[in-house]
Prior knowledge:
The chain is about 65% helix and about 0% strand. The chain is globular, with a radius of gyration of 19 Å. It has about 220 residues and is mostly helical. The chain is built from 11 helices and no strands.
Amino acid sequence: ADNPLEEAIKFLIPLKNLASDNIDTHLLAFEIYFRKGKFLLMLQSVKRAFAIDSNNPWLHECLIRFSKCVSDHSNLSEVVNKVLTQEMQKIFISKDLESFNEEFLKRSPTSIQHQLSGAKMMYFLDSSRQEKAIAIATRADETMRDKNVKTLTKVLESLRDGSFGTCHAQTNEYRLACHKLFPLASAFTPLTNEDDGCFASVNHTAFNHEVLSNEI
């Protein structure tokens, strides 16, 4: 396609009507409108998603990215700015983004997916908190209830895709820790036998809670 975003919107319109009760429909819509800079359509998408599940991890990331994007755009028309501010106020209820994110983390302490989204937004809002954000995202102790290959793979992908900046050492430690938990999962297979052999001597981020001792 000459313009992939325009093509995506063509598919999106019927989806929004046919799958209007599916939160992913509205969050996908948000991602497309976010890339096109369509603020009122972004707002419509997050409002519809919020009505379906206000505690959804992907929605949480969209809300913070949207709010930050609005505050970074001083060139919005007065009318649009007023509408956006009023509507976002209903969701954030006078909280700054950092407080909103901390509350989100506290609400779901045993969900890896929620902790991952909160940790990603912690780093997004303040890159100096990288170490703490990674420690939160990579927690995999016995209290975490969604400790499965799919969820841990999501965490590993986030460590690799720049969501936490450059963190090669932590990424490798986490992959090794996951390999120990799920030795048959190809997503965590060590690159070399040497990697696996030094597992015992690695100070694993996934199980290192020193950073979290005075956490949230």
